[in-house]
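Design request, tokens follow.
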């Protein structure tokens, strides 16, 4: 294994007067955490005393090479030798953060004296997800072992003197999936997350993960929305696509690109059926824009709609040579493709309502207003029945992250969003944007690009891990008086 503190990256030259930011060195600390210590509370520490197996993300599951999600080792859908390295798993952000803390000057082995407790529940969480993926959503409740192990670890944590001292006000949880829970542990999981852990800091990939909680307005005071870990066209080099030069605007052959699955429209569960508004929206938008010009490459990948699958390398190649890339929600508000659009150097176009998630849109994070375009469609009845309002009601909670009426912009964009009546009006606007505006947008995309990368150590320039760690040290500390 490489010594991360001595690892250096090759810098890429100037491209079209824009410096392509590549990480020059590994660092020992971030400024916001100066003088603060962080303890990593790995739930595996409770394994021996609570009937739980120890858990290791590197050994106990394998990662699908196509979509970066985990499966059990006995899954036959792909060969073990084809599995992705864990650093490229879509939901591996918590692992990157843990590794970065461990190699920094901020780590401590004294839980009682630490300023912040980072709860590393990630392995049991991912093992639970791997079981759901491998056995299917209709798996018998008694087979959901990993979910029960996770709950057992949480209860052991609640019995520590450190939790009793602060009631979680200086604890940090990182939930990298919008909602997959299943089996007998599901109810207990949400009771803990939404109630018992309400004073902790919550790191999530979309707001809906905690907006379902009755205590959302308490949780939202210390809520951070982060990106997914993007894929890579080179499994041996997780940062390969960030190191690619940005193609000059005049060399881009495609005006607008979008490619994703638009099915299924609904998911059938034992107790309910959920309509996926984002998938319906994708289909309607693809129908409206797919034939609006030879330089428009917008379509669903589903065979039923005449589409075809593109490899990740093909998608990245097309986005690099495209001026604008659509950002649309899917099953829920968040999507890894947002990270990959920035990684490719394509100018993001957010179209709504409802809107896709905008990770790290808080101050000190990613400047979406400078880097992206926003279009608000008046006629959205083809995919959405409810009236959309650009705020989250104080007294109403959705019952699931699939509820689209809370997929609202995470950045303040109402003054910069362009109003259009129908989707097909989008193209007229995109074709008439002045070059000086495009130059500024691309410059902003390049400036924000590396903030969507994940690395298992602190870097310069900052990656997503730097920003998350800084936020932990500024908003992760208690905002309320500790309870003795």
């Amino acid at each position: 294994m490489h010594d991360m503190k001595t690892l250096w990256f090759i810098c890429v030259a100037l491209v079209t007067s824009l410096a392509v930011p590549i990480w020059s060195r590994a660092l020992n600390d971030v400024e916001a955490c100066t003088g603060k210590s962080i303890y990593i509370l790995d739930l595996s520490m409770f394994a021996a005393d609570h009937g739980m197996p120890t858990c290791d993300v590197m050994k106990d599951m394998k990662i699908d090479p196509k979509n970066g999600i985990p499966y059990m080792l006995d899954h036959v859908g792909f060969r073990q030798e084809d599995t992705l390295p864990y650093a490229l798993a879509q939901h591996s952000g918590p692992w990157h953060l843990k590794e970065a803390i461990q190699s920094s000057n901020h780590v401590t082995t004294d839980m009682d004296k630490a300023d912040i407790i980072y709860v590393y529940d990630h392995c049991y969480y991912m093992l639970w997800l791997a079981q759901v993926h491998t056995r299917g959503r209709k798996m018998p409740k008694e087979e959901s072992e990993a979910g029960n192990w996770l709950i057992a670890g949480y209860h052991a944590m609640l019995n520590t003197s450190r939790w009793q001292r602060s009631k979680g006000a200086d604890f940090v949880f990182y939930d990298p999936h919008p909602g997959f829970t299943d089996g007998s542990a599901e109810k207990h999981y949400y009771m803990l997350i939404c109630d018992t852990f309400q004073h902790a800091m919550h790191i999530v990939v979309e707001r809906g993960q905690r907006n379902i909680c009755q205590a959302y307005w308490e949780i939202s005071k210390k809520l951070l929305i982060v990106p997914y870990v993007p894929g890579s066209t080179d499994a041996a080099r997780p940062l390969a696509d960030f190191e690619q030069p940005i193609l000059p605007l005049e060399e881009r052959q495609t005006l607008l690109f979008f490619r994703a699955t638009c099915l299924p429209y609904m998911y059938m569960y034992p107790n309910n059926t959920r309509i996926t508004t984002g998938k319906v929206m994708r289909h309607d938008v693809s129908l409206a824009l797919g034939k609006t010009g030879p330089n428009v490459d917008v379509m669903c990948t589903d065979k039923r709609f005449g589409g075809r699958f593109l490899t990740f390398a093909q998608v990245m190649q097309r986005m690099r040579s495209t001026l604008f890339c659509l950002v649309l929600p899917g099953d829920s508000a968040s999507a890894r493709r947002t990270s990959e659009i920035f990684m490719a150097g394509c100018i993001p176009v957010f179209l709504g309502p409802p809107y896709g998630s905008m990770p790290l849109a808080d101050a000190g994070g990613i400047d979406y207003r400078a880097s992206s375009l926003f279009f608000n469609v008046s006629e959205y009845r083809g995919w959405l029945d409810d009236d959309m309002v650009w705020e989250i009601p104080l007294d109403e909670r959705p019952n699931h992250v699939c509820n689209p009426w809370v997929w609202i912009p995470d950045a303040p964009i109402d003054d910069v969003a362009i109003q259009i009546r129908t989707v097909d009006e989008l193209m007229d606007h995109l074709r008439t944007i002045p070059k000086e505006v495009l130059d500024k947008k691309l410059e902003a995309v390049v400036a924000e690009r590396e903030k969507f990368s994940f690395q298992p150590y602190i870097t310069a320039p900052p990656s997503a891990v730097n920003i998350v760690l800084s936020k932990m040290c500024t908003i992760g500390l208690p905002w309320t008086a500790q309870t003795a």
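Comment from the thread starter after seeing the answer: thanks! The chain is about 25% helix and 15% strand.
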